[in-house]
Amino acid sequence: MEVTITTPRGVRLAGTFEPGPGPRAVLFAHGFLSDRHSSLRFDILASAYRTAGYATLQFDFSGCGASDEDVVTVTNEIEDLRSASAWLAEQGYPAQVLHAHSFGSLAALRGQPADILAMVVTGALTGPMNYPWEQIFSPGQLDELEAHGVTRVPDDNEASTREYSVISRETLADYSLIDQHELLGKVRVPVLFLYGEADEETDLVTMAREGIALVPTSARLEIVTGAQHGMKDRLDVVAELALAWFAEHLPGDA
C-alpha cells in the first residue's frame, strides 16, 4: 500500500506500508542517495519480516525516490525517520524495530525514534569517514559545492523517476565529523551491527569494533561470511540474524 507521510517541516515522504497481524512493525532507513527499495534488498527483507509476523514500512528519505525535493543531510533524515515512526504508531504499531543501512544508520543511531525498541544496522557508520570525494564526484560538482554550497547528483536507482538528488557541504561533513563517543554513547536501544566480509577491508569494521564498547545497552557485532557491503548476496543470513535479535529484545507481549 502506497502512503504519504508529512514531516513537521512540510516535506511529503513517499512510502510503502504493509500491515501485520499484531502491534510489531519494522521501519527501514535506506542508504546514501538510495530509495525505499535499496536495490531490492529492502523488498526482500521486508517480505521475510512480514512472513515472521511484522508489519513493514519502507519510505524514501526526503530528496530521494518519490519523496519531495530536499537537500540530503542527516539532520533532515532524522526528522524524516521520526515522522515515519510516528506515522506507524498512529496506525497502531507501537512496538517498532528499525533496520537501517549504511548512511541511513547515522539517522537511526542519532535519531532513535521514541517507539523504536531495537535496531539492526548493516554496514553502519560509527566513526569519521574520509572518502576521496574527488574520485566520487566530478570536478564540476565539487566546484559547485565550493561556490554555492550544494550540487546535484544524478539518480541512478533502478526504476526511479527522479532525475537527481541534491547534496550540500553539510552532507559531506556528515561523513567526516562523526564523534564516535557521542554517537554510540547515546544509543538507548539494543543494536546489532552487521557487516559484510568485504567490509573487513575498510575502516567501517575497524571503527565499529573499537566503538562497540561505548554502547551503553546491549550490542553485538557480526560479520556475514561471503557478503559484500550491500549484503544483497546474503540477505537470508541477514534476515535470520535480525529476526533472532528482534525476538531476543522485544517484550514478550509486544
Fourth CATH level, the homologous superfamily = Alpha/Beta hydrolase fold, catalytic domain
The CATH topology comes to: Rossmann fold
The end-to-end span amounts to 24 Å
CATH architecture: 3-Layer(aba) Sandwich
Q: What class, by secondary structure content?
A: alpha/beta
CA radius of gyration: 17 Å
Number of domains: 1
Which CATH class applies here? Alpha Beta
Mean pLDDT: 95
Care to describe what's here?
The protein has helices spanning 41-51, 74-90, 104-111, 133-136, 139-148, 169-176, 180-185, 203-211, 235-249, and strands spanning 2-6, 12-18, 24-29, 55-59, 95-101, 116-122, 150-154, 164-168, 191-196, 219-224. With 254 residues, it is an alpha/beta fold. The protein has one domain (2-129, 179-249): Alpha/Beta hydrolase fold, catalytic domain (Rossmann fold), CATH 3.40.50.1820. It has an eight-stranded mixed β-sheet with strand order 1-2-4-3-5-6-9-10, sandwiched between helices. Strand 9 (191-196), helix 8 and strand 10 form a beta-alpha-beta unit.
How would you concisely characterize the structure shown here?
The chain has 254 residues and is of the alpha/beta class.
Give structural attributes.
254 residues, alpha/beta, Rossmann fold, two-stranded antiparallel ribbon, 9 helices, 10 strands, globular, AB_hydrolase_1
In terms of topology, how is this protein built?
Layout: E1 2-6, E2 12-18, E3 24-29, H1 41-51, E4 55-59, H2 74-90, E5 95-101, H3 104-111, E6 116-122, H4 133-136, H5 139-148, E7 150-154, E8 164-168, H6 169-176, H7 180-185, E9 191-196, H8 203-211, E10 219-224, H9 235-249
Parallel strand pairs: 3-4, 3-5, 5-6, 6-9, 9-10
Antiparallel strand pairs: 1-2, 2-4, 7-8
Helix pairs in contact: 1-9, 2-3
